[in-house]
Design goal:
about 210 residues, alpha/beta, Rossmann fold, Ybab, Chain: A, 5-stranded parallel sheet, 3-stranded antiparallel sheet, 6 helices, about 25% strand
Length: about 210
């Protein structure tokens, strides 16, 4: 994955963000190859009540909340329902932030080229939420990088992100896990351990 993004190697304005949990191990390798700083970008989708797979918004690292006004209006989501879902997801986001980040400061993305990494894209809903939330942090450029994706999702992100890098789009796609020899789920403890090692990565001009 890192080689496909080698144009960003040794640049002082690049930041690699992995989407927990599965995107963090991939992001580690990207950051190591690019000699770039690494962090996690925790995103929680705000699922529409009764249709949880449909995002009516998202919250993310840095206190960001973005809402999908069309979905909220179409399904007549009340302020009370929206606030209830937000509160629940904020609790999980804070839990993960505290676990993964510890005492480290929040992400500084202003003016940077941010490479958002996940282990793959099926529908792309989580990554879509991540891109929307990250825009609120004012990066100079958002690059989405994944090893594998459904063809439709890969094409969609060419217009959502500033750049989309996808190594393969197999057909039929079926699922992300189908294209890994080992798709054992990454644990919170593993994410924390990987992020704790980030200072050991050699960094170019950072």
């Amino acid at each position: 994955m890192g080689q496909a993004l080698s144009v960003y190697r040794n640049r002082a304005d690049v930041l690699v963000l992995g989407l927990p949990r599965g995107g963090v191990p991939v992001a580690v390798e990207v950051a190591r190859t690019l000699r770039a700083p690494l962090d996690a970008f925790v995103v929680r989708k705000l699922g529409t009540p009764g249709r949880e797979e449909l995002a009516m918004g998202a919250i993310a690292s840095g206190g960001v909340r973005v809402l999908n006004a069309e979905v909220i209006a179409h399904y007549r989501i009340s302020s009370a329902s929206l606030d209830a879902v937000t509160k629940r997801e904020e609790a999980e986001l804070m839990r993960r932030e505290q676990l993964y980040r510890g005492e480290r400061p929040t992400i500084e993305a202003i003016g940077k080229i941010v490479i958002l990494v996940d282990d793959g894209l099926a529908t792309g809903s989580t990554m879509r939420a991540a891109v929307s939330a990250l825009r609120e942090l004012k990066p100079a450029r958002i690059v989405v990088g994944v090893p594998v994706a459904a063809g439709a999702a890969c094409e969609e992100f060419r217009s959502i992100a500033d750049e989309m890098v996808c190594l393969t789009t197999p057909e039929p796609f079926n699922s992300v896990g189908a294209w890994y020899a080992d798709f054992t789920q990454t644990t919170d403890a593993q994410v924390s351990e990987l992020l704790a090692q980030r200072q050991l990565f050699p960094q170019g001009n950072v």
